[in-house]
Amino acid sequence: MVAKLSFLSFLGLAPLFAAAQLSGSVGPLTSAATKAATKTCNVLDYGAVADKSTDLGAPLASAFAECKSGGLVYVPEGDYAISTWARLSGGEAWALQIDGIIYRDSDTGGNMIYIEHSTDFELFSSTSAGAFQGLGYELHAEDNWEGPRLLRLYEVTDFSIHDFILVDSPSFHLSLDTCANGEVYNMAIRGGDHGGLDGIDVWSTNIWVHDVEVTNKDECVTVKSPAKNILVESIYCNWSGGCGMGSFGSDTNVSDIVYRDIYTWSSNNMMLIKSNGGSGFVENVLLENFIGHGNAYSLDIDSYWSSMSAVEGDGVQLSNITIKNWKGTEADGAERGPVKVLCADGAPCYDITIEDFAMWTEEGDTQWYSCESAYGTGFCLEDSSNTVSYAVTTTTVSSAPSGYSAASMADDLTAAFGSTVSIPIPTIPTSFYPGATPYSALMADSASSSTSAKAHPAVGTSSSVATASASVYVAAASAPAVTSAVAPVAPVAVSSAAESAPSAAGQAQKGQQGQQGQKGQQGFSSGAHTPEPPFGSEEEDCQE
Ligand SMILES: *[C@@H]1O[C@H](CO)[C@@H](O)[C@H](O)[C@H]1NC(C)=O
Ligand SMILES: *[C@@H]1O[C@H](CO)[C@@H](O)[C@H](O)[C@H]1NC(C)=O
Ligand SMILES: *[C@@H]1O[C@H](CO)[C@@H](O)[C@H](O)[C@H]1NC(C)=O
């Protein structure tokens, strides 16, 4: 599969797809195998003990110091505890192979693993089973939300993170802060059922996030400002807050963003673009091939988002946003309709297109569409070249649009994990969108399916190709990570399957959402700007 994708890329078929979004190649410049061959620093040789109690902090820092300039830092299988957070700064041509499980063992805030000022970097597990277990529930049960984030990259360029699992972070799971040319894929992220436990937050340039599953109750995969050339695809929000963009405030600078093949189940929204006041712009956005079931909101553009305090300014200017091929059902379309495009009266949005959009309600038999100061085509958008503000308009419909039915994922989570009991470490799924196959096979599967380590030729711009030269790396996995600027193949068309009847569990969980969303219950009719259900508390700001 890997070879085939590379071949397609080589033929030049794929670049057409990603070209508009990514501005160049993504991923590490040197293979992990090459790095391992240059030098391997096994943490066990630096004082680490896989006994789930010895602090991994200092051994990890020592191993990094020895291997940061061309090498592979290796955390073998086993259970480790970390109580001194690792700040790994200034690496070049290095990789971090974590085949073990690292347990949080301190309540200190900050970032458990913080990687900064690095270039040509790769973090992965060759077994696809390496994980951080954040044990956030220990803090959350005591209503403590100040614990550390699990993983944060700051000013890292030409990198990838893949085949890795993040569980139960006390705070955010993965943040990409001012990074460039990165690829994040084949990951499972599973957090508590509470706000403030974001899955992936990206404010960076030229980043491809794909084939990721997130379970939590806040951001699934979210773009913050500033960001440019971000491609997010094949994302499974398996009981989450849902994907979003924002929250945006002053000097917002976000452009060339694509979300494609996004499956959202039992989340707050399928896509929420949120701001309240502020300035700057969000432009050139494509939100394509979304399937949703059991979500509160679906398309939710809210420039008066009540969960954030208003920021000074006329509003963030949204333009050239296309919403295309959305199918499925929302939880209760009379309470929260599937189309909500509320733009700032001080900065009406324009060139908004909603097409091939068919969603219907699971509860009751009406749903609404609502727009404010929004121009473009589709639903309640006003089609005019004159873009002056206008008040909220709401259209209620009582018949289902044709073609709304859409496939479900077989393994949709049927109950939340809550935030007070231990959350088990999941395995990384092998599909993240109905009918779609991930771009790269899991490393674990690649290893077991090949009898010997074989080198794959480097093709095109892909450089992160494993070769059979390093014992540590190759022993565990012979197949390469596919990494290149190109999105290899067209998304698999999703044939509409039988409409999924909301399960008993689905109903129960809708009830729960209803409760959590009491504030939102006043509904749309009560005022110009719908209060947001406080499912997820507003996240911390991007900046530290
Ligand atoms: C927006 O960010 C880009 C870099 O991505 C920068 O070149 C541009 O100057 C910024 N624009 C504004 C108005 O800040
Ligand atoms: C609108 O955004 C799309 C990406 O979604 C981009 O391809 C296109 O060039 C943009 N149009 C303009 C006029 O900038
Ligand atoms: C969705 O989440 C539930 C609970 O974690 C899990 O049992 C199920 O396997 C997940 N689905 C997939 C495809 O991983």
Automatic annotation (TrEMBL):
Its EC number is 3.2.1.171. It comes from the Eukaryota. Residues 497-544 are annotated as: Disordered. Residues 497-523 have a biased composition (Low complexity). It is found in: Secreted. The keyword Transmembrane does not apply. Residues 1-20 form the signal peptide. One of its GO terms (cellular component) is extracellular region. One of its GO terms (molecular function) is polygalacturonase activity. It catalyses: Endohydrolysis of alpha-D-GalA-(1->2)-alpha-L-Rha glycosidic bond in the rhamnogalacturonan I backbone with initial inversion of anomeric configuration releasing oligosaccharides with beta-D-GalA at the reducing end. GO terms for biological process: cell wall organization; polysaccharide catabolic process. Pfam families: Glyco_hydro_28. It is an enzyme of class 3 (hydrolase). Keywords: Carbohydrate metabolism, Cell wall biogenesis/degradation, Disulfide bond, Glycoprotein, Glycosidase, Hydrolase, Polysaccharide degradation, Secreted, Signal. SUPFAM superfamilies: Pectin lyase-like (SSF51126). Belongs to the glycosyl hydrolase 28 family. This is rhamnogalacturonan hydrolase.
